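Supplementary Text 2. Reproducibility record for the structural model of the 295-residue chain.

All settings were left at their defaults, and a single model was retained for analysis rather than an ensemble. We include the record here because the model underlies the residue-level annotations in Supplementary Table 4.
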Amino acid sequence: MSLLIGALTIGLILALLALGMFISFKIYNFADITAEGSITLGAAIAAALIVSGMNPFLATLIAMIGGFIAGSITGLIHTKFNINGLLAGILMMTALYSVNLHIMGKSNLPLMSQNTVVSFIEGLKILPNNDIAVFLATLILVTIIGIVLYLFFRTNIGTAMRATGNNPQMIRALGVNTGMMITLGLGLANALIALSGALLAQYQGFADVQMGIGMMVWGLASVIIGEAIVGGGSVAMLIIGSIFGSVIFRLLVAVALRLGMNPNDLKLITALFVFIALVIPYYTKKMQKRGVEAK
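Retained model, structure tokens:
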């Protein structure tokens, strides 16, 4: 039971990563590899500040701000210097590796004996089972963030951001600064990703400089799985799908590990799964098109 609750909790924490990838990938069609650095950045900032004695909630908030700055810099590199988006993300991710090492002071920073958001929730003794209490708190947080994100995309700024991704020429003709919209969107995306990293570090009890490796693929897998479950369409359904996709993907990983899969193969299996998830819709549409032509 505790294994299932733990998998669900991590799935929800990584749903924040999925929501960040949803913004960059589905709104802007921008495969932002900054995510692999910003999730570690969030963990590094939160861990370093908590170890120094700062309130864990404030430390988590500052971690989000750090992620926003990282994403915004990627956006500026892409828009102001006209550098390819993938290269801009790679530049930022590479720089963040050294930044994260400087923030933590070493490659791994333990938090087991520190006051964290997780230990605070456990200390409230709301429920007899601490694992369930942390899971419910995470579920509430992710639900609130999902609702706020949906409402944000219905505002004028949110609509302009979506329009920038759909038709930049049109929205530019209406006087909107598309460069600023892209920069703002990537900043928001990486703020959520950094929040995911900060919470993940506090839940697992450590921050590690290598923890971001492969996380972009994880986020994309969650978004793709979620879209396959709920289908395309409205922003609300895509947000819900991203959250469900993350939880389901984490459960699949937990089951695979439980059945004896070598942990060393986890990244390989993840990459293959994303490849399959990307290929299936293409061939499904191709088969449907042939069926229509045959009629």
